[in-house]
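#lab-general

N.A. 3:47 PM
ok so I finally got the sequence cleaned up, no stray characters, all 233 residues accounted for. can someone with queue access submit it? mine expired

B.Y. 3:52 PM
send it over

N.A. 3:53 PM
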Amino acid sequence: MKKILILGLTGLLSITGYSQANNANFDIYARTIDLNQKSLAFGLTEAQFNAIKDEAYANPNFVTGKIFQEDQLIKDDVPMRYNAFADEIEIKKNTSDMSYSALVKDPSIFVKIFKDIYVFVPFEGSNEKGGYFNVLSDGKTYDLYKKTTAIYREPKKAKTSYERDSPPSFTKTTTYYLVQNGTFMEMPSSKSKVLKVMSKKKDEIKNFIKENNIDTDKEADMIKLVSYFDSLL
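B.Y. 4:20 PM
back already:
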């Protein structure tokens, strides 16, 4: 897969991590997640946590997918889901398991959960500071990545009789990135700013947006736009 190759070429993958990942006994299960500690970590009751926990996920359901190392399939039919709060891929050994683990964070490992591809990208050479991105478009020059982040909001008591108590919650935000050779550029949502980002082919992009009624606030349209931009280069 091109993303994995790019990461290797830009020096983001350390020699130690590479040799570890290619060991035949490489363990993809980074750690077991203690379900009993989750509600306690937020200072919530079990009932309060259960009421909001699904909000922390891109999709709260475990969906069977594939795990790859470089371009080689190493595990198939693995129940997985992406935790947007912890920035982890949670995996089960089989669908009937109540317990689950976190997938090891390594740039040579990527997953396909149904149609969604998630790659792990280190930050400044550090796996600890890195994160998962959803690959939406894989072009010859530019790719489109999506980052979904869930932020925990603590419960708040109303200060006046005119206000209401705010329950605990997770709120999700989505950011899109134009990626070239390991360099990430945040994609704006306004058409005028998108034209600046794609200034190399400004006239063609402007006509494409107009002729195809592209709405840059819509993910499907953003994918079309980036794919077209990449085809012009």
